[in-house]
Every structure is written in structure tokens, then in C-alpha cells.
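Question: Send over one sample?
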Amino acid sequence: MRIRALVLAASGAVALSALAVPSASAATAGPAVTFSNLKVNSGKNIVVGSTSMVTVSATYTVTKPANLSASSFQTGPVLYRGATLGMDSDDLLFGDDAGTCTASSSTVLKCSAKVQFRPKGTAETGDLINSQAGTWKLGALAVNDSDGITWQGNLGSTHLQRRATLTANASPEPVKKGKTITVTGKLARANWDTNTYAGYSTQPVKLQFRKKGSSTYTTLKTVTTTSTGTLKTTTTATADGYYRYSFAGTTTTPSVSAAGDFVDVQ
């Protein structure tokens, strides 16, 4: 299939993986279609770890003239950054393959597609780097048999995020009531540049406690991670229960909570 490798020389645009669109010099008009109802990953943020490719689904609607054959063009969703969608966008991200469409009328197509996200070093093309985590705009394109392109941007937005991990360890175990408990841990996130996990520095993380027999965690205090992502604080033992750290997340990194560590208070 023709939709595969994006033109890398397009005015500084960075291709990750792609619908194979024509060169920036193509003058042929694109198909007379419009897009609507685009939803990528069911509207949820896209979270990518340090090494494995992540594939998400997208759905969208294409509206076309009744006399325009659906087989004469191909379509797909686009993630982009920059003021406008086109060959001069700051970054462009496409799926490996064109969308699959089914006609619901002579003028309306219901379509679905897949979009792949690959950390650096996991594929020959399509490498994500750390600076590309954050907010991306959503758009779509159509390519016709004459290599004309139709772009449509501002169809929504999503967050492309670096997967996070969080640990918690409370000690001593057991402990006498009223004594001090020390809770350590570490907040880390995927480093797409090195295919590892690295500490996430200077982030506020909540220390939480769940009493034995309860299903609800209560926040005790907020602790800030060190330059290496580590956490350490103390609290007073009051009852049997579970201690954990919980991170609310940022634009570039999803929320995460550590597994609760049980402490027997005697």
C-alpha cells in the first residue's frame, strides 16, 4: 500500500511513522472530503513505556460528494504540533496504514484506523523522543490517486505521555503504636531517548494511608521527589493498615499509585 513513509524533507516536519503522503511539491488538488467525529484511543491519553510499541485505535467520519468514489482516495488520522496542520507542522504522526472505511450512505463513510507509537531505538522509523511528550492536536488527511492531499486540523487534542512507575516501602514492620514509620519510594518514568526508566525529579507526591478493613486511602502529607525521583518521609503509627505514595500526573506523565505496603501496628 502506498500510505507508508512520510516526506521527511517537508519544511522541518519530524515524521514518526506515517501515511505515505506525496512530496511537498505536489500540486494536485486533494479529494473534496471533510472529517468529523475523530476519536483517538477512545478519547483517553496515550501512554507509552520505554521500549514497547503502543498501538491505539481511532474512529472518524468522512463526508464526500456522492459522485466521488470511496476507492479513489485513502484517509487516516494525524497527530500534529504547531499552529496549523500540513507539511510545515512542527511534528507529524501518522499510523502505518490507511484507515478502513464503510459507506453508511452515498456521501458518508464511517472509518477506523490504527496509530503506532514507538520509543526511540525500537524501530527504524517512528522514534519518539522525550521532548515529544505532551499535548498533540488531532487532525486527518486524505490522499487521492493523483497524490493530492486534503488536510483538516483542529479535530481535538490528546496527551502523549511517558509511562510512570511508583514504589512505596514502609518500615519497621511490625511497629509499636505511636512509634515512627519511615516510608521510602521512587517515582520514575519512561525515558524514550535511552529506552530505560529514570527518576522524575521535584514532583509532588502524596503519602496516603488505608486502615485495615477500609477501602479508602486518606492523604497524610505531600512529599517532593529528589533529583533522582526518590521519596522519603516519616509518619506516626496509629493502626494496622497500608501506606502508599500517589502521583497525580502531569501533561507529559500519567498518574500512578504505588501498591500499598501493609504495616502491623502492635
Notes: Confidence is low (pLDDT under 50) at residues 1-18. The first strand starts at residue 14 and ends at 15. The CA atoms of residues 42 and 172 lie 44 Å apart.
